[in-house]
Q: What sequence folds into this?
């Protein structure tokens, strides 16, 4: 029961973080573009907490289902030269697209954080063996690479068959010959 409550709370907080980053993209580019921002809100519905700093009111609202960045002249015409509607079209496009761009950047940063914690990535090269490994007993060594067996390897030409056999010889037969002290066949 307590785990479910914590999971819901974590989901709400994570969703709130995503909303904050999205709305911050609009807010930041609006301020850089010289557009007046009347209110920066996270959540919808009744206000839980708010404060005024400069010309912008910052608020946290009850329902964590969205947010908004209310800019002067965004919904109605305004005579203010800092109004959204009075700025050049390219600036308005940048402000509108900034939220989605921030979401994409946040996703990239999250993936970088998650992937940086991985001890190693999937590879076809052996990095090390587990203790008493069957592969190690079979004469595989660290830095041995596995080759993919795809249709292109088995193309019906003498050259591709020769190259495939050569790879088999260098990857598997030669290490076996070294271990067994036998002479390899030559190609």
A:
């Amino acid at each position: 029961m307590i785990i479910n409550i914590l999971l819901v709370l974590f989901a709400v907080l994570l969703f709130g973080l995503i909303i904050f980053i999205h709305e911050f993209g609009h807010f930041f580019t609006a301020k850089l573009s010289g557009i007046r921002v009347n209110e920066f809100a996270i959540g919808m519905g009744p206000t839980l907490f708010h404060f005024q700093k400069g010309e912008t009111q910052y608020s946290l609202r009850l329902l964590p289902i969205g947010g908004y960045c209310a800019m002067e002249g965004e919904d109605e015409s305004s005579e203010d030269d800092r109004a959204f509607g009075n700025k050049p079209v390219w600036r308005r496009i940048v402000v509108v697209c900034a939220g989605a761009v921030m979401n994409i950047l946040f996703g990239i940063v999250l993936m970088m954080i998650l992937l940086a914690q991985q001890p190693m990535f999937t590879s076809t090269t052996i990095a090390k063996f587990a203790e008493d490994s069957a592969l190690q007993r079979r004469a595989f060594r660290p830095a041995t690479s596995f080759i993919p067996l795809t249709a292109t390897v088995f193309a019906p030409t003498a050259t591709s068959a020769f190259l495939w056999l050569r790879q088999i010889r260098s990857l598997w037969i030669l290490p076996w010959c070294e271990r067994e002290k036998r002479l390899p066949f030559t190609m």
